[in-house]
Input
Amino acid sequence: DYLAQHGPVGGSIWVQKAIIDNAEAGRVNAQALLSGIEKTRAFLKTAAELKLTFPEKDILNVRVINLTGHKLPTGYIEGRRMWVQVNFLNATGESIRKIGEYGWVEAEISGQKIKARSLTDADQTRVYECLPGMSAERASEYGKEPGKSFHFVLNDIIVKDSRIPPKGFSNEAFAQRGCAPVGVSYDDGQYWDDVEFAIPEGCASVEVSLIYEPVSMEYIKFLVEENRTDNSGTVLLNAWKKVRDETSAVIATEKAILE
Output
């Protein structure tokens, strides 16, 4: 019992089911893969914690604290992202305003009209992510649009990297290794992020969650539509459609009652 354990569960919570659905009979251990999903969800809850404070009567401050030894979130940076979801409730428990809504949206992928789960208000939500892209020179060379891009083999710049640094963070050290924050700033030694929200009138309590999405609908759309050599895109889309309402995880949740 005194030995430390490290289970390589990663951060995926849906690919395991896709493997089960598409594997030949008897080729995979379905029970082990499903167990992996549960272990992953439990493991993700150790990645961060939330602290709620009220610096002013009508202001909520949410501190997102990185408990890992790496940037949060980490891993291959395709469609992964994490965001702060805030739900303001009145005295009867009804929501009067919600930020960071993860809801159903209409989408078209490879000519198919489908409903998919996605962050519906990204423009007003604090999102932690890394977005690679192409410079104007590189984009011109390959006939692409400059800026954010899922064409990872062609990308040569980082457009945004707002991920929360780990303990021991140093701007100089991270810059030397080409992994400095982009578009945001963190002080040396900072391994948290503070986000302030105006509390709406009539709010009696607040619920805050840190949501993690290991693959976005936008990235699935890109992969499906860029596949032109075989039916892998169709296989991926069908597998993802079966579990598209199970592709996010709650890392941490905190509640507070207003005085």
About this structure: The two ends are 44 Å apart (CA to CA). The first strand starts at residue 48 and ends at 56. The longest helix spans residues 30-44.
